[in-house]
Amino acid sequence: MGLRLRPVDTSFYDLFTQSANHLVGGAEILAEMLSDNSDKASVAERMRAAEHAADETTHEIVKKVNSTFVTPFDREDIYALGSGLDDVMDMMDEAVDLILLYEVQTLPAEPLRAGRGAAPLRRG
User: Fold this and answer.
1) What sign results for the dihedral spanned by CA atoms 17, 69, 81, 31?
2) Mean pLDDT, range 44-57, rounded to an integer
C-alpha cells in the first residue's frame, strides 16, 4: 500500500467541467441568436441567465482555492483557468447584448459560419 502525499480531491476538476458545460450552453444560445428566426429578446434573457450561472461557478472555484490548503496544481493557474473560462462566457454574453442593442437583423456570412460551427458541441 502506497502513501499519498496529496489527497484525491476531484472538486476542482468537477468545477472546471461545470464551467466548460456553461460555455457549451452559451455557445448554443449564441448560435441560436445568430439564426434568422430567433426571438432575440428571449435569447438575450436566456444568455444573461446562463452567464450568471457561469459566474456562480467561477465564484465557487475562487472560494475553493481560497479555502484549500493543498491544490491539485498551482493556485495562479487555477485562478487563470477559471478567469479565462469566465471571460469567454462574458464575451459571448456581450455579443448577444450587442446584437440586441443594435437591432442587428442580418449578419455577414463569417459569424453565421462560426455560429453553425458551435452546433456540434454536446455536453458529455
Assistant:
1) positive
2) 98
The 10s digit of each residue's pLDDT in 60-91 is: 999 999 999 888 889 999 999 999 999 999 99
Cα separation, 72 vs 84, whole angstroms = 18
What CA–CA distance (Å, rounded) separates 45 from 59?
Answer: 21
* HSE, side-chain direction, 13 A CA sphere, residue 105: 0
Cα separation, 107 vs 123, whole angstroms: 27
HEC profile for 33-57? HHCCCCCHHHHHHHHHHHHHHHHHH
Q: Return mean pLDDT, the chain.
A: 88
Cell of 13: 476538476
| Rounded Cα–Cα distance for residues 65 and 40 (Å) | 37
CA neighbor of 64 nearest in space, from 1, 18, 30 = 18
The maximal CA–CA distance of the chain, rounded, in angstroms, is: 65
Q: Do the Cβ atoms of 25 and 50 come closer than 8 Å?
A: yes
